[in-house]
Request: fold
Amino acid sequence: MRWLKGWLWIGLSGALGWSQSLFPNKYNNQIQLGLKALLAHNYLEAKKIWSQGTPSLDQGTILYLEGLLYLGRYNDLGDTAALSVAKSRFQKLVEIQQAPLPADLGRASPAVLTGLAHLQMSFVSSVQGSFIQAALQANKGKSYLKKNTNNLEAQASLLTLSYYQGRLLQPLKWIPLVRPGDTEAKKSLAGLPLDSSVLSDFFYSSLMWMHYDAQEFDFALALAQKLHHRHPLNRTFKEFLADCHFRLGNYIITDSIYTSLIPEYRLAQATHQCSHCLPLAQLAAVGNLIKCSRVLKQKSREQELLKTWNDPANQKLKPYLASSLVKEVDKK
Reply:
């Protein structure tokens, strides 16, 4: 997988069977339609549905959804300018949620939405290399969400955050009283009624990566197939599939998926005419094809792909990619 793991796709929605919903039920259909467009990479259509649909979504909800949209552009198109736009949406959301408003305005849960916005800003800060700021934002988000654990999205987001914080503590687990707790978080997240969340797909993507990190590739593949079946146009979910197949030894399938993704990403960048977009996805796909070529003993193809990988113009892109991918491809 590429540079995006973490809590980018931490969700929001009305949850059934929980005492508090993040969004009023009347918004669910409109939110789902916009998310379907977003997951098909139809960014303009998603924004139109959320901003012009009926009933009118409250400002906080629109800001959060648009923040996710711009993060999606970064992940899919390598749109580096979209990171700052996303951060501005989340910052504005936090500001307006501070104003005291009556509870019966039919808007999204202010505290939970604020907590989720802080987590998203934490992700943006980490991508931009501001790790102290990322930690501060994560703790702010956690403080809001811990007060609202009767909300499904808050609970699922806390578990996701706990998992990744636990992963960071793994190297220190030999120290007394240090308890990473990432395994417990994964089990607890899997036990939640995620299908009752409008953004269940995003929670499932987090759960898939937890299984992947634990080398439970069969479970990860099952979730990747589920996500791909629901959203066949989504290129990130195709990458999920390819990564899982690679770890299971299905190298021909992996090779086929990544080979098909390269022209898809080129066409996407050409279609969106993004002046701030970097070919990150294409380069990551090339890196993964190099891995496939090595295990399939396709020496000539590997050498051809390495020319692209080692092109001087691509060296500045590697810091944006997953460090594990860069290390695997560059190892001698």
User: Anything to note?
Assistant: The longest helix spans residues 251-272.
